[in-house]
Amino acid sequence: MNAEQLHAIIAAGLPCAHLEVDGDGRHWNAVVVSEAFNGLRLIARHQKVYATLGQKMHTDEVHALSMKTFTPAEWAAQGR
User: Fold this and answer.
1) Is the overall model pTM greater than 0.85, yes or no?
2) What sign for the dihedral angle of Cα 59, 62, 63, 67?
3) Per the CB 3.0–4.6 Å rule, which of 14, 23, 58, 70 could disulfide with 28?
């Protein structure tokens, strides 16, 4: 899997106002900004992103994913 494929999978499963993905093919980092995170705690936000990946986490296509998740308001408050 490459960064473009992972980006497409997350974007297809979650409405993202902003999405960055990078990594080495097994270990990934993502910044995900979505209205879907409004009112959710961190663990629930991460679960939403993991849900977009489905079996890819279980079959080791995506070995590790570190994420930073924001609502659009949180993202804007950071000056982005």
Assistant:
1) yes
2) negative
3) 23
- 3-state secondary structure at position 79: coil
CATH of residue 72's domain is: 3.30.300.90
Return the C-alpha torsion angle 72, 38, 19, 15, nearest 10. -110
The neighbour count for residue 80, using CB atoms within 10 Å, is 11
Residue with tokens 């494929």: 5
In the chain, the number of structural domains is 1
Question: What gap in Å lies between CA 71 and CA 1, rounded to an integer?
Answer: 27
Instruction: Write out pLDDT tens, residues 9-40.
Output: 999 999 999 999 999 988 899 999 999 999 99
